[in-house]
Design goal:
single chain, alpha/beta, Isopropylmalate Dehydrogenase, 11-stranded mixed β-sheet
Amino acid sequence: MVAKQARIAVDAMGGDHAPEEIVTGALRAQAELDAEILLVGDPERIRASLKRHTVTSPLEIIPAEGVVEMHEEPLTGLKRKPKASINVAMDLVRQNRADAVVSAGHTGAAMASALLRLGRLKGIERPAIGALLPTMVPNKSVLLLDVGANVDCRPRFLDQFATMGSIYSQYVLGVAEPKVGLINIGEETCKGNDLAVQAHQLLQQNDRIAFLGNAEGRDLLKGGFDVLVCDGFVGNILLKFAEGVGRAALHILREELPRGLHGQVGVTLLKPNLKRVKQRMDDAEHGGALLLGVAGVCIISHGSAQAPSIFSAVRLAKEAVDNQVLDRIQGSLSPAADGA
């Protein structure tokens, strides 16, 4: 049986570089990935961007009116602009006309639109944004969640995040038995605030995951964990700090490379290695974060995302669709899975 081709709705108007960079990334995705791209937004602006490219395989344009701006309060913006690109994209998934949404627009608006139009998976009280970070182990990433959807959390929310993250890591990232950790200020079970201590107890009792215990900040990128959970306040700070460290390291590396003729020869010899370093540290390689817990596949990319990030975000969406992440999460949380 031939697998169904994934249909990805891309919010062409979301982000600092929309629609040009969004369109460029979407065109590359349609050319290189086995996916059909639906560009959602202002048809005139999208067509103007398409004219700057040689289009071998046309993309379908879905008209939308307006965009929720970064400075707008999410719910207010969504209500004032019911036909905004993010709303139209979510409606495509709700109507089964698309399998996933990719947006580099207002994160709060994307999450609110997903909740209003798609709803939550049964058994999930709060969705979580999961971001992939590179580790010191080659070809291995760690999934960190939540990185911004929930600033304040209850212990059971973190327990649900761990289950969703473990399933995603297993079926999309190919980790046979994902090792789960809880971000904390110490390895001991008694360490941390009330949230950390109570969440630790729940995670120990969760037989759906392989819980290894607490993980300190220095453990984040070592590669010993596959999934790390925390509230969105801590996660967002960790994510942006890690991205900043990666960019700073690349900047320092460029500055410290030897100059002159001998330096040029050395850089030429090191070029393949330097390229691999950039690929491992560049957050554009991951493209965005998966909004886990809503009844649809949603990838939230950076507001500053450019074409490479959009391509990677579409790839991430396709992998989640192809590996039936939503069905697997829902199945794990169903009463039957609990033996009830």
